[in-house]
């Protein structure tokens, strides 16, 4: 059975939010257990060209979908067809909160994963701190240049995936950040050329597909 793709608008705190909902391909072997989970993927910084169609966000979403997740991507307020204006991370966190509420209402009973790339990884981690019932948080390209990391001690499994040549989060820096956190946690390094996982996108997607809780 082919996967279902739905373009829609969500009710956000600053107006409508443009979103894309994708269900995984059907699994005839286990129809009662498909999809296996619901996943929300947050995109990078809206003031630096970030949208839900970013190539890293797309690969994260596809990897999760291949693992059996129904995936919701959305544009923060002020991005493309989403209403509102950039709100310095606080409003964008509210947008993610509204998107997660929609996902849970649409798929009640499914475990939820939060994921994000760059700025979106910060949003996912902040949201996960107040949502202890989420299954795990996947933070790709976490920008260690921001010194406040108090929100990283979420009471859920956190999986950090970082390029080996990330100009906004070097290997020594991300290793230090992850080492400072309490369990459960995991760090995966992807051999890639830059923050956007150039040359390593296939590996990124493969790792996402094979992930489990830590």
Question: Can you walk through the features of this model?
Answer:
The protein has 214 residues and is of the alpha/beta class. The chain has a single domain (5-210), classed as Rossmann fold, CATH 3.40.50. 28% of the residues lie in helices and 24% in strands. It is built from 5 helices and 8 strands; from the N terminus they run βββαβαβαββαβα. The chain has an 8-stranded mixed beta sheet with strand order 1-2-4-3-5-6-7-8, with helices on both faces. α2 crosses α3. The chain is globular.
Q: Gyration radius, to the nearest Å?
A: 16 Å
Shape: globular
Helix content: 25-40%
Number of helices: 5
The CATH class, by name, is Alpha Beta
**Fraction in beta strands:** 15-25%
Query: Distance N terminus to C terminus?
Result: 31 Å
What structural category characterises the helix and strand content? alpha/beta
Q: Which CATH-level-2 architecture?
A: 3-Layer(aba) Sandwich
Instruction: Summarize the main sheet.
Output: 8 strands, mixed
Low-confidence stretches: none
Compose a concise summary of this entry.
The chain is α/β, with parallel strands linked by helices and 214 residues long. It contains 5 helices and 8 strands, in the order E-E-E-H-E-H-E-H-E-E-H-E-H.
């Amino acid at each position: 059975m082919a996967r279902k793709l739905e373009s829609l608008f969500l009710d956000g705190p600053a107006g409508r939010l443009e979103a894309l909902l994708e269900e995984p391909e059907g699994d005839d072997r286990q129809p009662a257990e498909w999809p296996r989970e619901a996943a929300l993927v947050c995109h990078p910084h809206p003031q630096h060209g970030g949208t839900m169609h970013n190539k890293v966000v797309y690969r994260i979403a596809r990897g999760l979908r291949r693992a059996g997740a129904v995936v919701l991507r959305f544009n923060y307020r002020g991005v493309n067809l989403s209403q509102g204006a950039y709100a310095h991370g606080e409003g964008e966190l509210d947008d993610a909160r509204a998107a997660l509420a929609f996902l849970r209402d649409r798929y009640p009973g499914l475990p939820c994963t939060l994921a994000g790339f760059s700025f979106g990884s910060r949003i996912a981690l902040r949201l996960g701190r107040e949502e202890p019932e989420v299954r795990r948080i996947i933070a790709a390209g976490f920008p260690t240049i921001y010194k406040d990391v108090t929100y990283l001690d979420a009471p859920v499994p956190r999986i950090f995936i970082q390029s080996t040549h990330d100009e906004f989060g070097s290997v020594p820096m991300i290793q230090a950040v992850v080492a400072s956190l309490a369990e459960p946690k995991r760090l995966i390094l992807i051999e890639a050329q830059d923050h956007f996982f150039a040359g390593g996108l296939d590996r990124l997607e493969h790792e996402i597909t094979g992930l489990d809780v830590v």
